[in-house]
Design brief:
single chain, alpha/beta, Rossmann fold, seven-stranded mixed β-sheet, 7 helices, 7 strands, globular, binds glycinamide ribonucleotide, purine biosynthesis, Phosphoribosylglycinamide formyltransferase
Length: 188
């Protein structure tokens, strides 16, 4: 059994989807949810799904504490699912090619600091792009710049606003993110 640790800062719909997907798997399971925001919906979801959660502050993240806690769960893969802080260098060094992130756009477009959630969807809507999508990539020390593992696309209508784009992205994430996580684990 391989161990997945999910990092999330927000609502946690991706975290829940991944937890449920691997609850039926014979090869991997989500062993913990790490969260840096005390009011994040993901904490409630983890509790309801009986997955332990670890809440830490911005200050904790700059100390070795989070890495120590993470090591206790012996993760084979760390999955960032709507996690909005930069991963410190010591954690990246401790888990080479074992940290992946989902980004709600077709990187390298719409990546970088400050490009998350609705900020991304608004930018895509303003540019009237004919398509958008999701990117899953390895995490390195630069925001959204690690090697891309998989991308899935969806067509846009010229009249799509940020809310419609967000809904299309949500559907792609629900369908494909757990499968990509599984494929990464299989290749390890
Ligand atoms: C997801 O759409 C994810 O792609 C995005 O945050 C959302 C989290 O939703 N991530 C980023 O923007 C990272 N730059 P969730 O909390 O419901 O899973």
């Amino acid at each position: 059994m391989k161990n997945i640790v999910v990092f999330a800062s927000g609502s946690g719909s991706n975290a829940e989807n991944i937890i449920n997907y691997f609850a039926k798997s014979a090869t991997a399971r989500v062993v913990a949810v790490f969260c840096n925001a005390k009011n994040a919906g993901v904490l409630e979801r983890a509790e309801r799904l009986n997955v332990p959660s670890e809440l830490f502050s911005k200050e904790d993240f700059l100390t070795p504490l989070v890495l120590e806690k993470l090591k206790n769960y012996q993760p084979d893969l760390v999955v960032l699912a709507g996690f909005l802080a930069k991963i410190p260098a010591d954690i990246i060094a401790a888990f080479p090619n074992k940290i992946i992130n989902i980004h709600p756009a077709l990187l390298p477009k719409y990546g970088g600091k400050g490009m998350y959630g609705m900020h991304v969807h608004r930018a895509v809507a303003e540019n009237r792009d004919p398509e958008t999508g999701i990117s899953v990539h390895f995490v390195n020390e630069h925001y959204d710049e690690g090697n891309i593992i998989a991308q899935h696309k969806v067509a846009l209508h010229p009249e799509d606003q940020a809310e419609e784009i967000a809904a299309k992205i949500h559907r792609l994430e629900q369908e494909f993110f757990p499968i990509v996580v599984e494929e990464v684990l299989q290749k390890q």
